[in-house]
Amino acid sequence: QVQLVESGGGLVQAGGSLKLSCAASGVTFSSYAAAWFRQAPGEERDFVATINWNGKYTYYADSVKGRFTISRDNAKNTVYLQMNSLKSEDTAAYYCAALVSLSTNPDRDSKRWTSWGRGTQVTVSS
Fold first, then answer.
1. DSSP annotation string for 38-74
2. Residue 67 CB-half CA count within 13 A
3. pLDDT for 6-47, tens place per residue?
4. Which of 9, 12, 34, 101 could make a disulfide contact with 16, Cβ separation 3.0–4.6 Å?
């Protein structure tokens, strides 16, 4: 089972940037698709972005498209989420997820993802 640890969250002003990292351990991470989800208080956990096992294919929620970029470095067993032009509605706990998959279009349903980190809080002040 892969262990995932997120970092990089914090408090930022609207319009600012943050870069989240997700470090994986315990497995050959290049066999895994990875994704970021987020959850605001009282809300469901929502899909943000996903990346396939080799980083060639990426997909984004409409709400973050053009502002967020997901990437990965399999040599470092790490997935990243670069977040630019942050808005107050981006405030949430951000979770990294992993799934054994060689698909070019990883699933966006949180229920399909088998491994999760504990999350990192992102707060955007307006």
1. EE-TTS--EEEEEE-TTSS-EEE-TTTTTTEEEEEET
2. 16
3. 999 999 999 999 999 999 998 888 999 999 999 999 999 999
4. 12
